[in-house]
Amino acid sequence: MLDILKRPVYTFQEFVLLSISALRGVFRKPAYWGDTVIQMDLIGVGSLPVVSLTGFFSGAVMALQMARALQTYGATSQVGKIVAITMVREMGPVLTALMVAGRNSSGMASELGSMKVTEQIDAMRALGTDPVLKLVKPRLIATATVLPLLTILADFLGLVGGWIVACVLLQLTPGAQYWDTAWRAIEYNDIAQGLIKPFCFAIVLSLVGCYYGLQTTGGTQGVGRSTTQAVVVASVWVVILTFIIGRIFTKL
Amino acid sequence: MTTAAPEPVIQFEDVCLSFGGECVLDGIAFEVRRGDTLVIQGAAASGKTLILKLSLGLLRPTRGRIRLFGEDVTDYTDSQWNDVRARIGVLFQEGGLFDSLTVEENVAYPLLNQKRAPLSEEEVRRRVQESLDFVELGHTLEKYPSELSGGMRRRVGIARAIVTQPELLLYDSPTAGLDPITATTIMALIVKGRDVHHATTVMVTHRHQDGEILDRYRYDAATGRLVPAEPGTTRTRYMVLREGRIVFLGTPAEFDACEDPYVRKFSSR
Predict the structure, then answer these.
(1) Mean pLDDT, chain A, whole residue set
(2) How far is CA B243 from CA A93, A165, B206, in A?
């Protein structure tokens, strides 16, 4: 029994140690701003198409599916409210994080994993550079900066998607009413929740990607294994965290 | 009149290393004095590379003490290690070049990341060019490692190892996977690196010829070629590892005379 637990406990311990040293590294020099900007470009600009499409269609699908239910109660005017609350609180942050997990956590794990198996990480340390500062910190800062921004974009495009379906396609409600109900529905609590979530997801996504990359052993096969593990673990953590943060906010 | 022996650069005292309770190095004790050459041989997974990694602080010993340049580095933190590492040049088995950086950026890396007095851009460029010319790859500055052959990558690795003119040079299987002609070229560069900068050299290798070249040749600056060295002048010693233990440590003459069947596999007599 203890042997079965040993591995996950060890993994968690190592992950926590890396997280502590990366979070402390944020305040340590050197800053590696150049690397951070490159990562922001890779993660932020690179994810724009996938995040835009996901945001737009999730809003559109929600309006589409809600239409029938709302028609039953004669509440079609509320479609904007439902799309807004769901997008800002849950769908925007979670779907964006899952897309970024699939795209970037895997990318981090495979890039750092390849560096590990080709001794580039050892070379970096031997040449006097701390891999946590040089590799993990820029990815952490970049993800924590761009994921909330990507989420805002996904939220907005989701509302646009919902508007097109509800007002243009199905003509459930006038456009002005859609935007008015959507605008009124969102409270500060929703916005706070909708921005804190992607910030927390970003920290987990980047650290999980980097952790599995740096732990890679076993050549190219090991890189593939790390990449898969990074995506799976990051995605699972996103859905667990959204529940925990959601629960905290419902108590506020 | 006898001259005092040079001071030790590397000292291992009863060093043990374990992974998950499994002992991979046990009772390792040796010293390498300034200007000495040590050739480490042994079967695969006998712990040769681990000795280099311990000497670079990439691994921490489970037991025992390690001294480098007279300092006890066993309990050093990573930032303390960085000062020690600035005095060491290393060539990893596969070269360990950063594949996202050009050859020039790779060779400049140790100069740009050293904590000592920062060098001007021109000085960095000059030393990078000089180092690449040393390995006869001065024309590859803009290339990426993936555009180079295995032998050329190894040579760039040597250029990066010597660019800071370190006091200690560590080579991990520099000739592994290379054809005999390229391997001899690499070995000639290692001898040149040792003799031009008078560096202490530790080399892990599978080929007995590599050790012989280090032992029997020296670089002649006047002719720019390797010439036979007087016996004993290169101060070369051999170490043979077996399953994490030293089974032989001695001079080339003792190595040749050793009757141990395992050691004889490496001396190839």
Answers:
(1) 92
(2) 53, 70, 15
